[in-house]
Amino acid sequence: MTITKSSLIQILTLSILCFAISPSIDFNYPTVFNFGDSNSDTGELVAGLGVRLDPPYGQTYFEIPSGRFCDGRLIVDFLMDAMDLPFLNAYLDSIGAPSFRKGCNFAAAASKILPATADSISPFSIGVQVDQFLRFKSRVLELQAEGKKYAEYIPAKDYFGKALYMFDIGQNDLAGGFYSKTFDQIVAQIPTILAEFEAAIKTLHDQEARNFWIHNTGPLGCLAQNVAKFGTDPSKLDEQGCVSGHNEAAKLFNLQLHALCKKLQGQYTDSHITYVDIFTIKYNLIANYSRYGFDQPIMACCGYGGPPLNYDSRIACGKTKDLNGTTVTAKACSDSSEYVNWDGIHYTEAANQYVASQILTGKYSDPPFSDKMPFLLSLKF
Question: Would you call 203 exposed, middle or buried from its count of C-beta atoms within 10 A (0-12, 13-18, 19+)?
Answer without folding.
Answer: middle
